[in-house]
Design a protein that fits this description.
The complex is a heterodimer of chains A (301) and B (413).
Chain A: H1 2-48, H2 55-73, H3 76-97, H4 107-129, E1 145-147, E2 152-154, H5 155-177, H6 179-189, H7 191-196, H8 201-227, H9 233-248, H10 253-273, H11 280-292
Antiparallel strand pairs in A: 1-2
Helix pairs in contact in A: 1-5, 1-6, 1-8, 1-9, 1-10, 2-3, 2-4, 2-8, 2-9, 3-8, 5-6, 9-10, 9-11
Chain B: H1 2-21, E1 39-46, H2 56-69, E2 73-74, E3 77-85, H3 90-104, E4 106-110, H4 115-128, E5 131-134, E6 150-152, H5 157-171, E7 177-183, H6 186-198, E8 205-212, H7 220-228, E9 233-237, H8 240-252, E10 261-266, H9 269-272, E11 283-287, H10 296-309, H11 316-335, H12 340-347, E12 351-354, E13 357-361, E14 368-369, E15 372-377, E16 390-396
The chains are: A mainly alpha (301), B alpha/beta (413).
């Protein structure tokens, strides 16, 4: 009987170990999506010094454009390719016709403007697509689940994890190895100096906002087979974006990536023992970061 | 520069606060006009923002159809119908209901949608002696929080869970285990209690329960836990976008269509229409209303609704809005009065037929005993039209056993 108990205890521990490994995989997949969003938000915040409250709405538009193009062309891949660029156009419009006119104004006006833009974009979604949500299935070759031995896991989420990682790697290369990336990094460090060096700062701002919008739109498109589409999806994701950015530290792109993954992991691991606190835990993380390390885990300012 | 960075950080945190509380509704109610002598004021308190914001306008639409049927007149009085946004927040809804009673002379309240909010609004109704009719999952309105002024339109939770489990077992005779996803507030807790009590009656064991926050969208962690227990079905006690998100992700994980998912308290059409046909495969759906109910009154309601909805038939949301208003109007007509006490007395023990079928109102606890519908979704190849999502496979009006009901004394006026 003692041996039976030990065998059952060993089996329970093995099951718990497998569950934890499964949740880590889950957290990574969710976290990569958060990381994509957070990097876009961090870029805009770092270079323009403005928290982009319209970031969630751009994410939502990315989702809806993806749905629209995929429905029309019957190709999810084509939709994912095109939709983020449509969101970039919206980003360009917001920056060139709105935010740019407010750079000289008090910071509060910029915040209010972007908040208004977020609400306007949400209402436009209802105008164009209606208040009822939609679902978009993954493409056929990524539908269903695959047995990984320790877990049966959706093919789409595995693809999402790999693709997001590749995008982030490409972004990392762009930021660190290209001239334009160097200008963006310089803009984050000291935008006044960038201007003094004769670089057209307005163009830098426009490109940064566009890049942030692209990442938001891409994240929205990638999220549709998992989270579906609703007019309020932008508002749902925005608090998580801000939490990631606060935890990461202002203007830290590597930080945004790691913090995004940490937030995803914290949610999934919390589910094992305290599922009711799945949402609360990320705000606890943020609170602790502010108290213990106000500059964020990876920020310097 | 340092000041600017502090400003940015403050702005970020302020922005987070704004984003968390951001709503699309700025329902500023102005006016302190008391009810005229020739009118009765009815308040519809619906979620126009927050987690159930997609359902609020539909509830309101259902209520207005009922009012249009009587030309906004009852018992010789004009009906003034006003609405307030509950925001799915108990404090805000209670404050707005109280404000409407004081400023607009409200005498009857229908709504909200969330059980948690309803438990706050019922106290406002009790305190102000206002008749209140609610449709939701918490049994407390006709249970331990019962009082003379409050009525429940939705089927009792016990009735509903019994019907769902019965049909699930009938459709899956070899099934032995279920895993519960439960939304973490009053509605979820009530239904969970009855599922756990009733499951053994049908030879089923609850092998796991996960409570998730209201408004949750990412269920992969819960699904991984559930699949580790290898249940024969996932039994969901949640609603609206929560339920849709969970069904979508259960499908992503390959749980359905191999194994069934039970949506135990569904809005029916409003949820099913947001799912792809493949996602809808192998679902058992329990609901207080489905548009194919075969009564003349329901057919008329469905036609009136479709004219306003671009052809989409009504689900539980608008059905509840319509049903709540119809019951209030029925009481007013029977009493030939618009005074809450008269209408309440008229409704206690009332029997008859309405748009969902036979009903009666138990005078002891003010529970409307009426049909609860269990549906099975059909494959796309068998759909007669794009809204032909499911067939009604069972209708249950079994009343909750008296000894299980916690309304011991409904009190007086």
């Amino acid at each position: 009987m003692w041996l039976g108990f030990q065998t059952r205890r060993h089996y329970c521990e093995l099951s718990m170990t497998l569950l934890i490994i499964s949740q880590i995989l889950n957290g990574l997949a969710t976290g990569m999506l958060y990381a994509l969003l957070a990097v876009g938000l961090t870029l805009i915040l770092g270079v323009l010094n403005i928290p982009n409250f319209a970031h969630g709405a751009l994410y939502a538009f990315g989702a809806y454009f993806t749905f629209m193009i995929a429905s029309f062309t019957e190709s999810f891949y084509l939709a994912i390719l095109i939709a983020p660029f449509l969101v970039v156009l919206i980003g360009f419009l917001i920056e060139s016709q709105g935010v740019r006119r407010l750079y000289a104004a008090h910071h509060d006006y910029q915040l209010l403007f972007l908040f208004a833009v977020a609400l306007i974009l949400q209402e436009l979604i209802i105008v164009f697509w209606g208040p009822v949500g939609f679902s978009l299935l993954p493409p056929d070759d990524l539908a269903g689940a695959v047995d990984l031995g320790i877990i049966i896991y959706p093919k789409y989420r595995i693809a999402l994890l790999i693709f997001s990682a590749l995008v982030i790697l490409a972004l990392f290369f762009f930021i660190n190895k290209t001239d334009l990336g160097a200008i963006l990094r310089a803009g984050i460090e000291n935008r006044e100096m960038v201007t003094v060096l004769g670089i057209d700062i307005n163009r830098v701002f426009l490109l940064t906002f566009g890049l942030g919008a692209y990442l938001a739109g891409l994240a929205g498109g990638l999220a549709t087979p998992i989270l579906g589409l609703t007019p309020s999806m932008g508002l749902d994701i925005l608090p998580i974006c801000f939490v990631v950015v606060v935890v990461a530290g202002l203007g830290s792109i590597p930080g945004a990536i790691i913090a995004g993954i940490l937030v995803g992991l914290s949610q999934s691991i919390t589910t094992i023992w305290w599922p009711e606190a799945t949402n609360v835990v990320i705000y606890v993380m943020m609170g602790l970061t502010i108290i213990l390390r106000p500059q964020g885990l990876f920020g310097s300012r | 520069m340092r000041r600017q960075r502090r400003t940015i950080r403050r702005s970020l945190l302020a922005g987070l606060a704004l984003a968390l509380t951001a709503t699309a509704s700025f329902a500023v109610q102005i006016g302190a006009v008391q009810a005229a002598d020739d009118e009765v004021v009815i308040l519809g308190i619906w979620p126009q923002s927050g987690p159930y914001a997609d359902t609020g306008p539909l509830l309101d639409r259902g209520a207005r159809i009922a009012l249009n049927e009587v030309g906004h007149k009852v018992a010789g009085k004009k009906i003034k119908y006003i609405t307030r946004d509950s925001e799915t927040k108990a404090g805000i809804a209670a404050r707005r209901a109280q404000g409407a009673i004081e400023s607009d002379g409200v005498k009857f309240i229908v709504g909200p949608w969330s059980s948690g909010v309803a438990l706050a609004v019922t106290e406002v109704a009790k305190k102000n002696k206002i008749m209140y009719y609610f449709s939701g999952g918490t049994e407390d309105i006709s249970g331990k929080r019962c009082h003379k002024y409050a009525f429940m339109w939705a089927a009792n939770a016990w009735t509903a869970m019994d019907a769902n489990l019965k049909i699930f077992k009938k459709a899956n005779p070899d099934a032995k285990s279920i895993y519960l996803f439960v939304v973490d507030y009053a509605f979820g807790w009530t239904l969970q209690k009855y599922v756990e009590t009733l499951a053994p009656k049908y030879g089923l064991k609850v092998v796991g329960v996960d409570r998730h926050p209201l408004g949750h969208r990412e269920y992969s962690s819960f699904i991984v836990k559930a699949m580790a227990k290898n249940p024969d079905a996932v039994y969901m006690i949640n609603f609206g976008l929560d339920a849709i998100s969970a069904v979508r992700q259960l499908h992503n994980f390959g749980f359905t269509p191999k194994k069934p998912v039970v949506l135990s308290w569904s809005s029916g059409v409003e949820e099913l229409v947001q799912m792809d046909a493949k996602m809808r495969a192998n679902l058992i759906v329990g609901t207080n209303y489905y548009y194919t109910v075969d009564t003349p009154e329901n057919k008329a309601f469905v036609e009136a609704y479709k004219k306003q909805s671009g052809g989409i038939p009504p689900g539980y949301g608008p059905g509840a809005g319509y049903g709540l208003m119809k019951m209030v109007l029925r009481g007013m007509n029977k009493a030939n009065s618009v005074e809450p006490v008269d209408v309440i007395k008229a409704l206690e023990g009332e029997k008859g037929k309405n748009f969902v079928g036979d009903f009666y109102i138990n005078g002891r606890n003010h529970q409307t005993v009426r049909p609860f519908f269990v549906l099975r979704t059909k494959p796309e190849s068998k759909m007669a039209n794009k809204y032909d999502f499911a067939d009604i496979v069972d209708v249950s009006s079994t009343e909750q056993p008296r000894d299980m009901n916690q309304c011991k004394d409904i009190g007086g006026f």
